[in-house]
């Protein structure tokens, strides 16, 4: 006899049904054996050394360092970490999400005004997948979000947060990863900057 449980989770404006792993009971043995859980992963941003990073306006930078185990980070159901990317174990529909936070600080108002004039007026986050099946070198952009900077008159610290989330049909061996327009401003806090997915 098979038993299973499911629940609904509200994510933004979407409602997604989450399925718990099914349990197969063996009446003759009186025991039960759990099947593998559905593929899922949650990566979190570690503390990184940004002193050697030189940001160039107009470029996209892949985030290559993530916590993928320990704390609240994990991979399960056959999904795994590879060079800062989540590798998809099986074809199917997945909910992919990310939250990337940026922090910009200055010590004087003159520095603030100069950075605003010289730097990019926006911060962008890009969700990509890679597979040799796709054109343009195997990379395919799935989603993008841009935030326009808005300096307060009396603020020397500004924090910006980008959130993305959508359902995609992913193929086995797809590699899911994040790019940003400015790597030096990323808030390297595991609870503020993270991304992941789960199969629905």
Automatic annotation (TrEMBL):
Residues 39-200 form the THD domain. Its main location: membrane. Gene3D superfamilies: 2.60.120.40. Pfam families: TNF. One of its GO terms (molecular function) is cytokine activity. It is found in: Membrane. It comes from the Eukaryota. PROSITE patterns: THD_2. One of its GO terms (biological process) is immune response. One of its GO terms (cellular component) is extracellular space. Keywords: Cytokine, Membrane. Transmembrane segments: none annotated. SUPFAM superfamilies: TNF-like. The keyword Membrane applies. Belongs to the tumor necrosis factor family. This is Tumor necrosis factor ligand superfamily member 11.
